[in-house]
Amino acid sequence: MIEEVYNACVRCGLCLPTCPTYLETLTETSGPRGRIGLIAAVDQGRIDLLSPGFVEQMSQCLDCRACEAVCPSGVEYGVLVEEMRARIETAVAPNRPPAQRRLRDLLLHRLFASGRAMRAAATLLRFAQRTGLQRLGASLFGLRDAAALAPEIPDRFFVADGRRYEVRGAAGTAFLHAGCVMPVAFARVHEASIRMLNRARLNVVVPKEQGCCGAIAVHAGDPSFARELAKRNIAAFEASGADVYVVNAAGCGAALKEADRLFSEDADWSEHAARFAARVRDITEVLDAMELDPKIGSIESTVTYQEPCHLAHAQRVSAAPRRLLAKIPGLRLIEMNESAVCCGSAGIYNLTEPEMAARLQRRKTENIGATGAAIVATANPGCALQVAAGLRAAGSPARVAHVVELLDDAYAAYGATVRRA
Ligand code: SF4
Ligand code: SF4
């Protein structure tokens, strides 16, 4: 089935300069064209699926889809890498040591799948952060780098509890996707999103029946669990009667917009999934298309925009966040070099491929530093954490914010000017 996809590659090499791992290594096999050649060889039985070089390349690829976005032949590279990761997972899963199997099951099937489990884990992490236990544990177990990426857990969580946020004269109803990490690490982004959607004259519903988007399951080569999660969100959206399914995390949005791909062989669900996928929008697309309340304050500051891969490449949404930033009086947008080159976050990539992730993080930090901007705007929690950790390590005073938070701040400052150096 994937034969058609890889056969569409004409080996032109136009994708090479967009590939972060190729830019870092200048090695053909660490770029999209080389990886497509390897995938074809494995699919045709010329290379063993579990040969170390192949497994390494499937792991080192960020699945950032920058190559896909520029390919003149329309090669759906994401389909290829995700299929190969699923095949590798199927082959290695039975031989995984029981302790590793249990840990994977705990993380993938219990932690990310349950809002309650995520809140319990985040409460423990918050306690460890406030008491210094996190620092102590990280240095005892040699996990300083991983700990540096952990989000600072705030005092309050966001809970998808079925509440409705209504506005007079609403033009429609938006379903807000809560997700798994966002409610415990970025509650303020959800709160800002609700206020901004209301300012765009949309009622907002946050049904409690929703769940994780399934992107982590797809990236980990577990499409059947991703299907289970997708069914939950599709059913919650259908039951809500909302007009649009709004996502403020680019990685989740990309997975949800492609939910139909998961059900291509399931006649019962494929139509539901296709209808659902067609209604998913990133919040920047929604706000950009709506008329916003004109009562906006100003933010006197310099901002640079870091493009989340799964917004720019997978969803092809690039102009909307910039147009929204341009609507904030006083804000000066300075473009950085390589804004659309991955920062090295890519789901759990910074944990599975720490060396390449650190190289890409440094590259991004340097590009940000060259702009001199006081704020880095982005639209994905993974990018926010990775960029913030890079800035901290470089001693930069710049801070990171979601595009929607900046807009919300500007509205909150109506009648005044906020200055951010
Ligand atoms: S994936 Fe597309 S851009 Fe890259 S080499 Fe193949 S045809 Fe060219
Ligand atoms: S998905 Fe990203 S890292 Fe992987 S080959 Fe394409 S551009 Fe390179």
Describe the structure.
The protein is an alpha/beta fold and about 425 residues long. The chain has three domains: about 5-95, Alpha-helical ferredoxin (Fumarate Reductase Iron-sulfur Protein, Chain B, domain 2); about 95-290, no CATH class; about 295-420, Rossmann fold (3-Layer(aba) Sandwich), CATH 3.40.50. It is about 55% helix and about 10% strand. It is built from 24 helices and ten strands. The protein has helices at about 5, 20-25, 30-45, 50-60, 65-70, 75-90, 100-110, 115-130, 135-140, 145-150, 180-185, 185-200, 215-220, 225-240, 250-255, 260, 265-280, 285-290, 310, 320-325, 350, 355-370, 380-395, 405-410; strands at about 165, 170-175, 200-205, 245, 280, 300-305, 330-335, 375-380, 400, 415-420. The strands form two sheets. Strands 1-3-2-4-5 form a five-stranded mixed beta sheet. Strands 6, 7, 8, 9 and 10 form a five-stranded parallel beta sheet that branches. β8 (about 375-380), α23 (about 380-395) and β9 form a beta-alpha-beta unit. The mean pLDDT is about 90. The structure holds iron/sulfur cluster (2 copies). One iron/sulfur cluster (SF4) binds next to α2, α3 and α5.
List the defining traits of the structure above:
alpha/beta; 3 domains; Fumarate Reductase Iron-sulfur Protein, Chain B, domain 2; 24 helices; binds iron/sulfur cluster; 10 strands; 421 residues; Rossmann fold; five-stranded mixed sheet
